[in-house]
Amino acid sequence: MSDTKDSRGRAVRKVEPFLEELEAKPFWANLREHKLTVQCCNACGKLFTYPPQGSCPHCLSPDYKWVQLGGQGKVYSFVTYCRAWHPAYEDKVPYNVSLVDLDEGPRLLSNVIDCPPDRVTIGMPVEVVYEDNDGYTLPKFRPLK
Amino acid sequence: MGNISGRYAIVGVAETKVGKRPDASTHSLHLECIKACLDDAGIKASAVDGFITNQPLNDAHRSYAVRMANMARMSPTFATDLALGGATPIAMVQHAVMAIEAGMANTVMCVHARKRGTPDPSPGHPIRHGDEHWEEPWGHFSAVANHAFAAQRHMHDFGTTSEDLAHVAVATRKHACLNKNATMRKPMTIADHQASRFIVAPLRLFDCALESDGGGAVLVTSAERARDFPKRPVAILGMGQHHPHFSLLDAPSLTTLGGKKSSERAYQMAGVAPKDMNFAEIYDCFTITTMITLEDYGFCKKGEGKDFVKNGRIEIGGQLPVNTHGGLLSQAHIEGMLHVTEAARQLRGNEVEPERQVRDAKVGIVSGHGGSLCMHASLILGAL
To answer: In terms of Cα–Cα distance, which of B336, B341, B365 is closest to B88?
Structure first.
């Protein structure tokens, strides 16, 4: 997907992740290897939340490591896009966007796939699947079997 | 500093014609507000020594307040522009009070204009909230969806339905029909709302605010100096803010927001309770925002908003008239500036169309809500 025009002829932005963001680089690199990771504070031991940031949100220590998550969680809330805001999504409506609370705590915004949008429910157990694109990998979720 | 409740007042109020204004750029709308507010207060621009504006999204000049002050040939001793989304207009009034209390200015104008109804060709780059690259790759783009997450959760936790939300839209439209300066003046029924298409389910088209051009302004000074102005002053009785998160990924709740703590602080400063309010101008970017805020403000218990908004309770003549001007849903979306001007005009008592004047209006509360449900400001105003 690249810069293009919307249905009204206006230039629209890319919808790709920004891979060069300093604190987020390891997140995107680990996803290429199909690992979902999050920052973990070396000082207080707690997990960060997303998006990544330079110091621990709990104790402000800048000393952290990246740890792998199990990739399972539950849908905290969800919506169904019935209108496309970007040409890249015009043939995808209606589609799901969900807030997924991972079992370890952090929340991700993602899509529940392999499931009709009207079958997604709050509390639904889901597991991560990796969508490989040209140059980047997105974590998405499907109903836990 | 002791309690400042009642020590400051609004002495000038202005709003532009709203809707589609292809004739005016963002800064022209600001200038229109300045002129109208000066005229309303009966003073010249040189008498304004404090000046606050919003930071417009699509006219991205830096130092916007200083730029606008210069265009009106003001030379303020205090100026700033604020960017708290829909909490900005109320925050401007709060900053005006703080600036006067601190001795930095005596007469502070707060101007908020917005041009989203028609294109605003501007050489600057539009301002974004900054985390789009953590949303757009998954197809997440809009404020509608952020509020649809909250609506979905409210429905799940409390049994609220789309039809319950319709009552907010219908009551608000009734008020817009009585306001000559409202964009949407065709009556709406519950069935109309239910027939409107889903934008981001569970929110429908008629759950969503308008996109508008227009602006509003208020002039703030001390209660003492307020007596020198021609119009009836409106006292600033209570103020609060609360910003519990930034991203939805960190939101402690989607159904109890910053409005709870923000309003508690405002009630405490003013020495009043929800039952003392004669009306409420509640930020309504989406119907769900109004319902959650009514609950957070203590007008009903959490989860009971769906019953509170029915049976005419939030209409003019009801127990708590809400959004007596037609709100963002049906009057115009100026990020809540017109909620502030409407509250002030209701309390002046002789300015709005008689059909939508709240009888014996003495005290009212105004809410502002911004960003991904993350920012909140409250203001309690009273008749003097």
So the answer is: B336
How far apart are the C-alpha atoms of B209 and B182, rounded to whole Å?
Answer: 13
* Distance (Å, whole) CA B172 – CA B182: 11
| Residues of chain B under the 50 pLDDT cut | none
Secondary structure class of B245 (helix, strand, coil): coil
**Helix or strand or coil: residue B67?**
helix
Mean pLDDT by 10 residues, chain A (145 residues): 53 81 97 98 98 97 98 98 92 97 98 97 98 97 95
Query: What are the Cα distances from residue B250, in Å, to A45, A109, B246, B369?
Result: 18, 11, 7, 17
DSSP string, A59-123: T--S-EEEEE---EEEEEEEEEE-S-SSGGGTTT-SEEEEEEEETTS-EEEE-B-SS-GGG--TT
Both tokens assigned to B374: 């993350």
Contacts of A95 in chain B (CB under 8 A): 139
The pLDDT assigned to B159 comes to: 98
How remote is the C-alpha of A25 from its chain's centroid? 14
Which of A56, A108, A109 to mutate against chain B (most B CBs within 10 Å)?
Answer: A109
Do B134 and A51 count as a contact with CB atoms less than 8 A apart?
yes
Give the bridge partners for B51, in sequence order. B79, B109
Give the best residue of B129, B152, B155, B203 to mutate against chain A (max A CB count within 10 A): B152
Whole-complex ipTM: 0.94
Contact B249 A106 (CB under 8 A): yes
